[in-house]
Amino acid sequence: MNADEERQFREFVAARSRSLLHTAYLLTGDWEQGRDLLQTALAATARRWSKLRDREQPEIYVRRALYHAQVDRFRLLSWGRETVTDTVPDGPSAQGTDWAETVVQRQDIMAALRRLPKRQRAVVVLRYFEDRPDAEIATILGVAQGTVRSQTHKALASLRSALAEAGPSAASSSTASGRGFVA
What we know:
Layout: H1 3-28, H2 31-48, H3 58-77, H4 99-115, H5 118-129, H6 134-141, H7 145-166, H8 168-176
């Protein structure tokens, strides 16, 4: 990588790191794992930076690298992974909405999101948290648009079921915020 390419790469990282880290967090469910995942994806991108054909869209390449790195990490670590239990934390008090209730609701939503298969989680993150269209999601994940739609449908059904099991506090947060998973 020459000096001009290195400058371009550094500018890209400075401009897009926060958004990419948020995506990595949503894919992994953990900030530290998200940082590691993003670092892995950026390192892979840096190695290929001079060979990228479309310099106007490096973010798609990085997002694809994030997704594939997450799938690879999952395959390597899946044998020793902790299992999720059916036990839900105690519900918040009936004194109205407070910060503790909001935290519990977010935890329920993140737990439901973590239980989704990797591709379904990636589709939900890209569509509902990053507001990307089907065509762009298909390009990032390297699948057909029909696959994106079917994975979205399956993911939403799973999330609805999981949030219904978690109780009314989680279900109300997913629809009341306007960014919920009800379609």
